[in-house]
Design goal:
The protein has 140 residues and is mostly helical. The protein is 73% helix and 0% strand. The longest helix has 18 residues.
């Protein structure tokens, strides 16, 4: 399974959890993997890693998003799809050391497919601002 397809599966679970606000994330991960019949070990590991990692670092990730919003915006105004894509890309850039160009490009491709008309530009602007803020730490 290609990394883009695995990333899309992870995004769908992140989005689902954003809507559900469930407490038992590990149980939700297992149910998601089972219901989607995901047998690829790399896919299972990636999904578990990003979902648990985002949950572990959620305060810092949300803080980065909030600091990089325009003055008249707050995190509650962001659509759940855009927020899920931002969380995934930020986690990959900051904690997985995925090159920012790859993480942003993949996030933008998912935004084109699942987001609203302006999602791509909105996500690109936030992520570009965050990359400038966190600096040249992983091939930036």
């Amino acid at each position: 399974m290609k990394r883009s397809a695995i990333r899309e599966l992870a995004f769908k679970l992140i989005y689902s959890l954003e809507i559900q606000k469930t407490a038992d994330i590990e149980e939700q991960i297992e149910l998601y993997i089972e219901c989607n019949e995901i047998n690829d070990e790399e896919a299972k590991e990636y999904i578990k890693d990003v979902v648990i990692g985002i949950n572990t670092h959620i305060n810092e990730i949300k803080s980065l998003i909030e600091k990089n919003l325009k003055a008249d915006w707050n995190i509650q105004r962001i659509s759940k799809i855009d927020l899920s894509l931002l969380k995934l890309a930020i986690y990959e850039i900051k904690y997985k050391q995925i090159p920012y160009k790859v993480a942003i490009n993949e996030g933008l491709e998912l935004a084109k497919r699942y987001g609203e008309d302006m999602s791509k530009n909105f996500i690109n602007g936030i992520l570009a601002s965050i990359v400038k803020e966190i600096g040249d730490t992983n091939g930036i």
